[in-house]
Write a structure and sequence with these properties.
heterodimer, A: about 250 residues, mainly alpha, two-stranded antiparallel ribbon, B: about 300 residues, alpha/beta, Rossmann fold, Alpha-Beta Plaits, 2 domains, six-stranded mixed β-sheet, 14 strands
Chain lengths: ~250, ~300
Amino acid sequence: MNWFGIGAIYRFEMARMRRTLFQSIVAPVISTSLYFIVFGAAIGSRITEIDGVSYGSFIVPGLIMLSLLTESISNASFGIYFPRFSGTIYEVLSAPVSVVEIVLGYVGAAATKSIIIGGIILITANLFVDISVAHPIWMALFLLLTAVSFSLFGFILGVWADNWEKLAIVPTLIVTPLTFLGGSFYSISMLPEFWQKVTLFNPVVYLISGFRWSFYENADVAVGLSLAMTLAFLLVCLIAVSWIFKTGYRLRT
Amino acid sequence: MSANGSVIQVNGLSKVYADGFEALKNVNLDITEGEIFALLGPNGAGKTTLINIICGIVNGSSGSVTIDGHDIVDGFRATRSLIGLVPQELTTETFESVWATVSFSRGLFGKPPDPGHLERVLKSLSLWDKKDNIIMTLSGGMKRRVLIAKALAHEPRILFLDEPTAGVDVELRQDMWAVVRDLRDSGVTIILTTHYIEEAEQIADRIGVINHGEIILVQDKDQLMRELGKKQLILDLDEPLDEFPQQLASYNLKFGAGPKEIIYSYDTQAKHTGITALLSELGSAGIRFHDVRTTQSSLEDIFVNLVKKIQ
């Protein structure tokens, strides 16, 4: 393994977060606070509890997932797209680093950044509502798996995109709506029966459900199924990334 | 290194891009360890594609490349760690400092940190006082130096310079070639492409010419200059000449700038150049001249003639 190579990519990517530290920390704190003001105060005054958990506390795992997904995708996609756009990708492609090492560097850094932001949101949320974590190890596992899976997805997106519009279109038009409709701010049991079934086709439901279970032991779907779906998504992304490097798709063509 | 001293062996390499453009056609090339090899060719000839395949940036369509005995696909770790590449485009990081970007390059190529080596590289390229500067604040010439520093950060044994002096001022070009000569003296093999053919003429040991994706010539530079270079004798006449007398027909004389200048081309390798006989014949024909000078064709002339001939 080229550990120095992995470290170089990882540190390089993390340096971008350090350069924009204010924006990286302040933005999630402000957006979380706004969600609490808008959803917590406005909706929370009408829905006091869901499954025995106060509404404000109930939305915390969904809020973390919302940021985790968008940050993982945007960090990883930008991380690989920008060198392609600027041409500096030549150095990574000509370096003695394997596919696994490149992915560990880029995806590791993107996942780290989104987990840090998830932690910041958790701390911020704790200022507004009481939060209890029933299964901290499961919470950490879901957090890690989701961050890694969606960072891989973002990496694929960054390789696929050949302009800035494409880079933004998937997170904006697909991921964010799926997250909002995946039970971030409500339990899917509150939906009419038909929409409950439709919602099960949304992969984000399984992520949020499993993650919320680790907090409050309440889940829309069985936790084992949540874990299986998360692992399945991770596997699909891993297969796609290995195909990209095997064929050189958009990188070595 | 192979038994014949080649550090790079390109065998039957072809590249067809997705749009059907055939950038390389069955290229065979051996690069000898420790030499400076200049790869010349017009725009779009396939120079950069060839370099990019050898460096691992682009996949070849068929054929193989071995570096120091290792295949570039199966033994990519061994081959790529030997190579440093200075790309044609000014593709530098934007917001990083010079020091951070050269440190990144060294790490990326699997080398442990060595501030002493990086300091030497930056000093040799007159970049040491800029080491904390953000790259976007540097001039184009300075960015070009940064690219060279990045390529040298991991102490490569083979250095590819793809148009390293494009858009660079004379002083920096001279500095760069001084660095290149020092690297060659330290045993680094250098493969360069340049449109400044006079620079290739000065610095290269061997010349390769590529056109339309095919290598049309690979030769020792001095031999090439001797074999394909023309020498010309130019005579300034006292009186203008309407046409050449019949007795001078065998010399294939041509008029130069006007009817008062005649040019005689001769082969420097021939046993007899014919100069003495020509001057004697001119005297017999009553053609008098007041000045004589000689010129020798440059590598650029040879290159242009070669490419024209192929086209």
